[in-house]
Amino acid sequence: MAHESHESKAPAGAGEAEAVEVTVVLPAHNEAERIECAVEETERALSSFCRRYEIIIAEDGSTDNTAEIARKIAEKRKNVRFMHSDERLGRGRALNRAFKKARGEVLAYIDVDLSTDMRHLRELIDAIRVEKYDFATGSRLLKASHTQRSLKREAMSRLYNFLVRLLLRSKLRDHQCGFKAFSRDALFSILDEVEDKHWFWDTELLVKAQWRGFSVKEIPVHWEERSGGTKVKLLKDSISMLSNVLKMWLNERCGERGKGKGF
Fold it and tell me: What Cα–Cα distance (Å) separates residue 241 from each residue in 92, 114, 156, 199, 233?
C-alpha cells in the first residue's frame, strides 16, 4: 500500500506554507548511498536563487534503507518533505503522486544521481519562473551540450530520440534527461493524460505537451554518466520504450492524439 510516511512541517503558518515558489522532487528507489548528497546539493543550488522552496523525496518501494535515511533527512531539514511507498510504483507514478502533493508554483524533478550539472538548475527554473515557458527540460543532445557516457548508450539515445521526432512529430532533441521543470497550471492540465508508469513518462509528457500547444524550452546541459548511476536496463527498457513510441504513434494515427488513450 502506498502512503506518505513523513511530511516535514511548514516553517510558518498556513498562508506562508502555500506561498512556495519552487518544488523540486527527487525520485528515489534504492538510493541509500546517494540520497543525502542529492538533497544537500539540491538545497545548496536552490537556496542560492530562491527563498521559498521545498524538496520532496519521493521514495518508491526501496528494498535498502533509503526510506530510513530520507525520513531522517526530512526531520532535520525544514524545507524537505518525505513521501514513502511500501510498493514499487514506478518512476512515472511516483512523480505524479509527488507533484500532486507539491505546493510550488514551479514544479521540477531531478534524478538523484545528479548526472546533470547543478549549475543549470537556476536556468531550468527561470525558464518557467521568468521566461514563462510552460515546460523546460535539460538536453544532452544539443550542439552546446557536453555529455560523457558510453558509446552504446549515446547511440541508443540518439536513435530513440530520432524515432520520437520522426514518428511523434516532436521538435525536441532529448526527451529523457532527468532534469525537468514545469508551470504548475500547465503540468496539472495534462498530468492525468500521461498514463505511463515508468521510464516512458518523460517522453509521453513532453510529446503530449507539444500536441496541446504548450511552450517547451530545451536547455543544453553538462551531463556525466555516474558510476553505477542509471537504473535503466539498456536492452530491456529500450525495447519497452520503443514499443511505447510505436503504440503512441499508432494511437495518434487512429485519431487518439491528445486524448490520453491506448497506453
Answer: 13, 23, 11, 7, 11
Q: Three cell numbers at 184?
A: 504548475
Residue with cell 524545507: 79
Residue 22 and residue 43: Cα distance in Å, rounded? 11
Rounded CA separation 237/115 (Å): 19
- What does pTM read for this prediction? 0.88
Q: What is the pLDDT of residues 48-102, one digit of tens each?
A: 999 999 999 999 999 999 999 999 999 999 999 999 999 999 999 999 999 999 9
Q: Which of 185, 196, 202, 237 is catalytic?
A: 202
CA 123 to chain centre: 16
Extended beta strands in the chain, E state = 2-6, 20-28, 53-60, 80-85, 104-110, 135-139, 146-148, 179-183, 216-220, 222-224
Q: Name the residue with cell 500547465.
A: 186
In sequence order, the 6+-apart residues with CB closer than 8 A to the CB of 155 are none
Fill in the amino acid letter for 49.
F
Are 81 and 7 a contacting pair, CB within 8 Å?
yes
Determine the pLDDT at residue 83.
97
pLDDT tens digit string along 122-148? 999 999 999 999 999 999 999 999 999
Question: What is the pLDDT confidence band of residue 233, given thresholds at 50, 70 and 90?
Answer: low
Q: How far apart are CA 77 and CA 98, in angstroms?
A: 18
202 belongs to the catalytic site: yes
CA-to-CA dists, residue 39 to 9, 23, 82, 256, angstroms? 17, 13, 11, 40
Give the amino acid at 96. Answer: N
C-alpha cell at 1: 500500500
Q: Which domains does the chain have, with CATH numbers?
A: 2-150+175-228 (3.90.550.10)
